[in-house]
Design brief:
This protein has two helices and eight strands; from the N terminus they run ββαββββαββ. It is an alpha+beta fold. The longest helix is centred in the first third of the chain and has 14 residues.
Amino acid sequence: MSERFFQLKEVKELGEIKLVGFRVLCPGDEYVNEIPKASIELQKRLHEIQQVINPSLQIGAFVVDNSTEEEDGYWICVEVKEYVDIPEGMVELTVPPQKYGALKHTGSNNMIRNSYNSLHEWIEEKGLKRLKDKWHLEMYSSWEDPNNVDVLLLDTVE
């Protein structure tokens, strides 16, 4: 399937987000394979997570320029109202209120980088500053087929 861009770019402000799921930690070139595996495992174990807000939305979180080991990696999670009895092998992550440059990507998982490049150019054109040391988000409404993902890319800005 060919990649499709939805060029609607906008600034979004989101409040605090509480996440429960898996932390993926691997060499950089392996994330494209390891994140989908963790996503499938999260879907299989979704019933174990309490207080899920939207079970059909998976959220990825990462810090571009992480300064600590605790920030290294990629979190694939679901949003919860409150943290209650986190299932074994899963983690919790609280993302503070932030402002994001947003772009929807539909198409191959391997082509997300092109969508990010487009988003980063737009952020620069708008005179916004990327905050690479803050949490960035990817909200997946479709992730089962790595060749046809539907994801809202949220790049933290000020």
